[in-house]
Prior knowledge:
Layout: E1 11-20, E2 23-33, E3 39-42, H1 49-57, E4 64-69, E5 80-83, H2 94-104, H3 109-122, H4 138-150, E6 156-160, H5 168-183, E7 187-191, H6 195-201, E8 204-209, E9 212-218, H7 219-224, H8 229-235
Parallel strand pairs: 3-7, 3-8, 5-6, 6-7
Antiparallel strand pairs: 1-2, 1-4, 8-9
Amino acid sequence: MRAPAANDLPILLEGVSIVSREVTILDSLTMAISPGAPTVLIGPNGSGKTTLLRAAMGLVAPTRGRVTWAGREHVAPERRAIVFQRPAMLRRSAGGNVRYALRAANVPHAERRQRTNELLARVGLSGLERRPARRLSGGEQQRLALARALARDPDVLFLDEPTASLDPAATKAIEDIVRDVALRGVKVVMSTHDLGQARRISGEVALMHRGRLVECAPTAQFFNSPSSEEARRFITGELLV
Length: 241
């Protein structure tokens, strides 16, 4: 484990707008990401979920507004990690991918083999250390991407639709890892199109539409008594356009 460092939580997005080529992707969005159970982002394609994750990670700067991490601005993402929907695999073994991530996180060389084994076991990839990463199945690659992200010992883990296109068994494996990560005190912020998945793993649900945060509430409240018309329509399967 690394020496103690300042925690990045809570993350506050205050009046954040992001405009690209005259298209508004996030529109005056205000949101707090606090410690606790996973926050799950839902909403139609193009609603701004991925851009919100990238802004909270610190990968894209707001056009207007500001993002702060535990009250600080412009903080290096040493205690944050993100896994994209289609993570790139290095031309190395599964173990080599994790060791690369550990080296990038400044984990001492003497600790890397043990940590690699621990991380692979944590995501259910024990015994596959020597397997070329690009020969793993889609679900295995996503779990390997999670192991690389966890090599940073993050305070917060952003996941961009990590189970898209995976079969039910692979989806369950990812959800089990998310639950384990959350139980260990890591804040998970995850986007999904799957309302069933949002019910299963979230502590709070945030609905986005047209770059705005429409509603954010504890899971049971969101699904049982939503306060917005958009949420009521989305939950019942209507299209938000």
